[in-house]
Amino acid sequence: MNNEEVIEILIKCGVLMEGHFILTSGKHSDKYVQCAKLFQNPMYSEIISSILAEKLKKYDADLVIAPAVGGIILSYEIAKQLNVKSLFAERENQMMTLRRGFEIAKGAKVIVVEDVVTTGGSVNEVVDLVNSLGGVITAIGSIVNRSKNNSVFPYPYEYVVQIDMESYDKEECPLCLKGSIPYKPGSRK
């Protein structure tokens, strides 16, 4: 599947939106990516996840982990296709942690996945957690790479599609300057 076909699926599922948005960072953009909408459709979720799983299988992981909430289903899909365990990390007292009896054995080979990577913040928090527990990161994976810096991680990084999106400070946003009112669709308030 080529990039255009992937983008077509993302648009069809409502993942890639156009308008006037406030990003999690507080910046404004004319595009927004909401990968949660992909997971409403199991058929497309499996197709897109299989592309990423194929890229990640060479990293020979024992388990896949993701930050909650955005990466939970992706972690499951990738782990299912790689035939390994799936975990997710949750925030507790502002820190990523394992709950629900999840464990990572010392020396376990781990792939960290996330639906969308922009700055890599959530992924890096999970990486720190895995490292603190003695796990060994073999790779990072995401559906969408919004980072303009492909070396955002000190580990191999695989993704399904790169989407370049301009973002602006509120005071310099061309949409605001035209009188448009932004919408904040993100998961963090």
Q: What's the overall average pLDDT, rounded?
A: 92
Strand content: 25-35%
Which runs of at least 5 residues are low in confidence (pLDDT < 50)? none
Q: What is the number of beta strands? A: 8
Count every helix, treating DSSP H or I runs of 4 or more residues as helices: 5
Structural notes for this entry:
It is a single chain. The chain is α/β, with parallel strands linked by helices. It has a single domain (3-177), classed as Rossmann fold (3-Layer(aba) Sandwich), CATH 3.40.50. The chain contains five helices and eight strands. The strands form two sheets. A six-stranded mixed beta sheet has the order 5-4-3-6-7-8. It has a two-stranded antiparallel ribbon with strand order 1-2. The radius of gyration is 17 Å and the shape is globular.
Write a concise keyword list for the protein shown above.
189 residues, alpha/beta, Rossmann fold, two-stranded antiparallel sheet, 5 helices
Quick take:
The protein has 189 residues and is of the alpha/beta class.
SSE topology:
Elements: H1 3-12, E1 16-22, E2 28-33, H2 42-56, E3 63-67, H3 72-82, E4 85-92, E5 95-97, E6 109-117, H4 121-132, E7 136-145, E8 157-162, H5 174-177
Parallel strand pairs: 3-4, 3-6, 6-7, 7-8
Antiparallel strand pairs: 1-2, 4-5
Helix pairs in contact: 2-3
